[in-house]
């Protein structure tokens, strides 16, 4: 009996899967995990994601997709979906402590002169776009599951999931955020640094004048507004020189209103919008950067698990999405996964370190009320980030 090439191809594919070749397990279905999964699946990898959280995305606030985010999403064919569901814009207006315009940063348009430089978008909406594309590309996503143990054996990674099942994979990707447990399982150590700042976000209706990002310098804190769609925006406030603390939910709106009271001009309008917001959150600003190798054998960490900047440059998601793309490209063009992972980290380390360090410097300047020194730094860092990933 003889076999045709189709049967032989199918048998080879089955044996590859059996041996774990070109199979990847990703920990975390956030921005880094979903993009890496889609990019790998499109290159022919069998990809499964273990996500600790439930199916529904829970965060009710938004974020800004800067040029590099849009460029990376465009490479996956997803930028237009984000622009359609979000709010395209190209400028950051800095307003001084007296409520007067102080500076305007015009961001580079990285996906063409006829498309906006960046987009504000609600987090659940962005998550839905990335999630749907991963599923369309054949990625299998398990919820309520994490990775319990990892063991490298030659070119294979033996992975035990918290539901008691096991996988053999050629690649394990830890994309489980700043408090990554995958990073810990791999023995990669980093510190989480708190910078004396707590950040607030409140979902509000978009005022008609808000067609770009506005940032207001205050006597003690910094406030601002980011449009998310035609109808929605979020107000942000960065509280400076404070201890980490958790406030009862009932205190969030009145406290945020009080903190906004000292700002003149348009912030008065934002203050009244905050009063009726049903979605107010307050979080510590924490940063992390993984020094040394980002991989152990065929396992690697990406996104916030490897490098988490302060939100001042609004670019953590950009790094996370870029990581997903660059990772798939590098493992695709090297003979072994380990070599691909080392090349990946080699391409990413300097860029990610620069962003984390610059975001921390900007946070420090904000705390020292040296806003005018921060503006050119924001501008030049956005220009640096416009360089290819
Ligand atoms: C206040 C604030 C504002 C920000 N604003 C912006 C902005 O405007 N623009 C921007 O580009 N960036 C912004 N960022 C940064 C951005 O949110 C992050 O850089 C980005 O979310 C990182 O993506 P990630 O996929 O690496 O991690 P995450 O988004 O944290 O995703 C990690 C995923 O892993 C899951 N997970 C966690 N632990 C486990 C586990 N043990 N097992 C399995 N799954 C697990 C989580 O549930 C989650 O789904 C902001 C950050 C903060 C804190």
What would the keywords be for this entry?
single chain; 389 residues; alpha+beta; FAD/NAD(P)-binding domain; D-Amino Acid Oxidase, Chain A, domain 2; 2 domains; 8-stranded mixed sheet; 6-stranded mixed sheet; 38% helix; 28% strand; elongated; binds flavin-adenine dinucleotide
The CATH class of the largest domain: Alpha Beta
What CATH architecture of the largest domain would you give? 3-Layer(bba) Sandwich
Distance between the termini: 52 Å
Q: How many separate structural domains? A: 2
What amount of the residues lies in strands? 25-35%
Largest sheet: 8 strands, mixed
The oligomeric status of these chains comes to single chain
Strand order of the largest sheet: 6-5-14-15-16-13-17-20
Rg over CA atoms, rounded to whole Å, is 22 Å
Each distinct ligand = flavin-adenine dinucleotide
Helix content: 25-40%
**How many helical elements?**
11
- Mean pLDDT across residues: 93
Low-confidence stretches: none
Q: Look at the structure and name the CATH superfamily of the largest domain.
A: FAD/NAD(P)-binding domain
Backbone structural class? alpha+beta
């Amino acid at each position: 009996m003889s076999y045709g090439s189709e049967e032989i191809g199918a048998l080879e594919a089955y044996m590859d899967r059996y041996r774990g070749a070109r199979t990847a397990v990703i920990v975390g279905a956030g921005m880094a995990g979903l993009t890496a999964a889609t990019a790998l699946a499109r290159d022919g990898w069998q990809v499964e994601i273990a996500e600790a959280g439930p199916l529904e995305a829970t965060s009710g606030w938004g974020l800004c997709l800067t040029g590099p985010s849009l460029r990376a999403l465009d490479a996956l064919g997803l930028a237009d979906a984000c622009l359609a569901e979000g709010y395209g814009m190209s400028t950051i207006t800095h307003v001084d402590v007296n409520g007067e315009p102080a500076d305007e940063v015009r961001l580079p348009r990285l996906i063409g002169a006829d498309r906006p430089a960046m987009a504000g978008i609600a987090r659940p909406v962005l998550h839905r776009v990335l999630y749907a594309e991963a599923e369309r590309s054949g990625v299998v996503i398990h919820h309520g599951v994490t990775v319990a143990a990892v063991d490298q054996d030659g070119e294979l990674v033996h992975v035990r999931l918290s539901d008691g099942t096991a996988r053999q994979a050629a690649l394990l990707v830890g994309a489980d955020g700043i408090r990554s447990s995958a990073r810990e399982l791999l023995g990669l150590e980093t510190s989480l640094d708190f910078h004396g700042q707590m950040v607030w976000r409140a979902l509000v209706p978009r005022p008609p004048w808000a067609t770009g990002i506005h940032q207001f310098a205050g006597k003690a804190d910094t406030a601002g507004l980011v449009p998310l769609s035609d109808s929605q925006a979020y107000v942000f406030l960065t509280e400076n020189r404070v201890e980490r603390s958790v406030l009862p939910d009932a205190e969030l709106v009145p406290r945020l209103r009080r903190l906004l009271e000292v700002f003149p001009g348009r912030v008065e309008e934002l203050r009244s919008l905050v009063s009726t917001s049903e979605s107010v959150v307050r979080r510590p600003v924490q940063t992390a950067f993984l020094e040394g190798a980002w991989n152990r054998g065929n396992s690697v960490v990406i996104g916030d698990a490897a490098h988490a900047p302060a939100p001042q440059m609004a670019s953590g998601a950009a790094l996370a999405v870029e990581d997903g793309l660059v990772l798939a490209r590098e493992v695709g063009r090297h003979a072994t996964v380990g070599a691909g992972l080392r090349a990946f980290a080699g391409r990413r380390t300097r860029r990610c370190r620069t962003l984390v360090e610059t975001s921390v410097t900007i946070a420090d300047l904000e705390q020292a009320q040296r806003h005018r020194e921060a503006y050119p730094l924001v501008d030049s860092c956005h220009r640096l980030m416009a360089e290819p990933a």
